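Service request form, structural biology core

Requester: graduate student, group of Dr. S.
Request type: structure prediction, single chain
Budget code: on file
Notes: please return the result as structure tokens.

Sequence provided:
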Amino acid sequence: MKTTYHYVCACLVAMAALASSCNDFLDTTPDSRIQVDNEEKVKALLTTAYPQATFVRVTELASDNADDLNGDLNGNYDRFSEQCYRWQPVTESDNENPTMIWQDYYKAIASANHALAAMEKMGGATTEKLRALKGEALLCRAYAHFVLTNVFCMNYSKQHSDTDLGVPYITAPETTLDPKYDRGTVAHDYEMIEKDLLEGLSLMSDAIYDVPRYHFNSKAAYTFASRFYLFYQQPQKVVEYATKALGANPEEVMRDYDAMKDMPTDNMQPRAIQYTSSSQRANFLLLPVYSTDQYYFSGYTNMGGRFNNNSYVGKAEQFFATPWAPDNDAAAQSQQMFKFYWFYSQAKDVFVLPKTPVYFEEYNSANHTGYYRTIVVALKAEEALLNRAEAYALLGENDKALADINVWTKTFVADKVKYNTYKYDDNWNYIYAEQKIDRELTLASIRKWAEKYDYYLPERPLPRKHLHPDWVDLPEGSDKENLVQCILLLRRLEFLHEGMRWFDIKRYGMKIYRREINTSMNSLTLTDSMSYRDPRQAIQLPFEVQGAGLKPNPQPSATEKASFNAWGARPWEFVFKRNDK
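Core staff response, request fulfilled:
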């Protein structure tokens, strides 16, 4: 359990940033009799250097993995989720809101800084174990700042990051009651993250962990490095670190979906538990968090019924629009086409993957009150693989990109599918047929997919969107662009309900829309859009943080807002069919 002192230390930076509402708390001096003065105490303190809040709801609902189903006629939502979906500053309280993200990630940073300071007072990292603990602290500090920068700031850009607002990069324990912080720039944040990351990588050791998957073990650290350099636009380093994470045979660390194949198809909990299990070889870093996302992204409750990944998106842009989908629609739309069984809630009209198990932490046994928790797979083998595939595509090494793509498809996609023909035998039983899935992708098959689906329009949703990155040349229709488009689809499937799609949208300058649709999927109203470098791509800082003196993110001017909504609320007739060329 956390001691009072440890808790205060972990909270100090976050609470100081929120000083306007927490002066009474800060007026209380921590219990200085508790000293972090040996290896075991440093190790214990570092268990609090991992955030217990999640950004998933905020970024997932901001992405194109959500639509507005039935508008105001649908009461299955809360104001917080609506504000995320509409790219508005969040004013509502929730375990997953920006205030909790900001506070908890800075608490994690504070713990890392106190651990580093304690080691310095002990004479430095003079033993093998202390060096490893210092590496862990630096990696935790780098990771937390990386998440904060990418949630609350614009994406990294060689053209703009020297002036784009960053987040305060905190490298020492806070010792004042009313600290003043400067946001700096995104470029400065990335420089500091890289410095901590590289030093942390040089010191880490798996030998100090009892349960490595809840700490920055080597595979987790290398995967984080591959993500960092992917966002930092250095593909050669992505290849270097992803390869260290994956080893010589990536197939050996891919997820074992066979462990789920006999689990029930009417209950997501067993599959979600298996997905987040520490025994799963693909799970490199697991984070227990306070969250109700397990209810939001399930279809079992009214939560998430209005703003979510509904069948309009799931069919047209994700599960039914893949390069390996057979021409037979019944086979292409079978849940058995994927090893990772997707669930469809007809009542809520949502497509969901079982990734978020439900846990209840009871703190009062008398009246059975407590907190809902879940496990987040923060870093995993599939990410390292897809990061490397994208880097190879950007470097023009197409054969290597295809090799990684096909490791992923063989893990995620079934080799054959059984589907209902909706014909009957003599006893009036359904007749089922079986079809082989050609999941080995080539440049030719990816070209064919690209030509088949053309580019997305809001009234004609398709899996490929126009890309407008300012950091790489991607001629439309080129093999390079086709490969990147394919990888972005694989990432969209792999990271569904993990909040990662939002960062891909920012990195590649995709224009996305806000749409209102009905349950029949045959009418559409466009209400908003977001293009590359729209100021709203930086989630607004919590109001408490602004009140403590930090400069807020810019917001669109009235003129810009008008241009985002130039079409007004225009109804479109939606025809659900593939583009025929």
